[in-house]
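Why run this: before we spend reagent on co-expression, it is cheaper to look at a predicted model of the complex and decide which construct boundaries make sense. The entries below are exactly what would go into the expression plan.
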Amino acid sequence: MAESIIQIQNVHKHFKGGIHALKGVSLDIAKGEVVVIVGPSGSGKSTLLRCINRLEEYNEGQIIVDGVTLDTAANINAVRRDVGMVFQSFNLFGHMSVLDNITLAQKIIRKRGKSEAEEIARSLLVKVGIPEKANFFPGQLSGGQQQRVAIARALAMSPKIMLFDEPTSALDPEMIKEVLDVMLGLAQDGMTMVVVSHEMGFAKAAAHRAILMDAGQIVEEAPPDILFSTPSQERTRQFLSKVLRH
Amino acid sequence: MGVSGQNLKKAAGKILGTIPGAEPESQIDAWWGLVILTIVVTAGLAIFSPDPYWRIIAFVSDGIWVTIKISVATFVLTLVAGLIGGLGRLSKNPIIFGVSTLYVELVRGVPLLVQLLWWYFAFPQIIQTLGRTFQIQALITYQANPELMAIIGFVFCYGAYMSEIYRAGIQSIPRGQMEAARSLGMNYFQAMRYVIMPQAFRVILPPIGNEFIALLKDSSLVSVVTVTDLTRRGREFSSANFNPIETWMMVALLYLILTLISARIVQWVEKITRIER
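The model came back. Tokens follow.
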């Protein structure tokens, strides 16, 4: 594959209270690659994802994103501009309309004018399939719609990488598909994506690589159809037997 | 209820409809009833028994303005002091956190009246002593301005209470809001300015409104440090005319009108800033 855009090198993370959440994780992600991370809760998969844009600090090792090492505050803000993040709980700004949610950072970080920012926002709302919701407030939307707005908000910054932290875990079953469809479209457009999710269907359809994490370490990585059907590690088999049962 | 009573209610409702915060379709609630009752009683006393009631109002009217001036000036400054204190209480920097925590704990443990006395009597002496020590003429002749000292004392005290309100308000906004703002590339202050504070402000509006009303009432304490506010003017009138019953009733009514109207203004601001759902 092409050159790597995210390099994670031997990263350790200790939480206050002595929990060793990441135990020397190393991972290279190539430009345009879609990586899905699965694993039991508490395995450190969300922590790893949050370390990539430094929402979580790590204690050891280093992470280089698009050639920039995350160390100084200026560096971190610069990297965050280019790395979109989608959260499990959407985290839309509740006091702003959908349109303002998508234009705010464009205006103050990307320094785009009001009309340009709104034009971009509206075209992204078309892309995620809810152009008619521009003037609604987040509280007036369904979970699936809110998550699609959150994706549009991240995309509005023209990111090079998109991180998804369990984007469908808080959604009702019938809304999961509408969000996954948007993510599938993104993957087909060639976006570099790191997705923490247990959506095996999405992983098989879109991901180049699936990673199983457990107890702060990467247990196994392989193309998703191989990882999910013929895993080489016992721990992976154990995990999958629990997840795939229903 | 008789027909005339219904009509009266309807007519009053129509008038109230023109006042923000009192919807025309809503019935007169107890609060508005109290406001009207208080104003009617006060006006009635002034009109039908101008001596002493109108004389009292005329005499203390400048005090009313001093009370309003001190309350509003203090309130505005307290909003700023509270923001700084509140952010300090949330700071990860141990020095900033320590200083702001010390300030809040210190102020909350000392009665407001004692603080006001300190600022009026002790603080100017400290300045003068410093002036003598370092031979600075401007400080040696320093004289305290009662109103300024009162406002400083109030801001110092209420700023601490306001800090805790700000802190609680900011903490009530889910962490995810800050994380989402930061993940879009905003720095801490941009995230505070555009995302956290606008939402926290709506949360803290009711307690802030309560603080203003408490402040308005506590402002009567400044009468002790020679500020000629409503209370002090009332005392002057009462001791000159030997009619404490009438004077203090009228002063109480005037305070009541101020606090009841303030409470309504607070409610109105809450209503227009509510987040649409």
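Chain B has a mean pLDDT of 88. The interface with chain A takes residues 174, 176-177, 179-187, 190, 194-195, 198-199, 202, 275-277 of chain B (CB under 8 Å). Bring this page to Monday's planning discussion.
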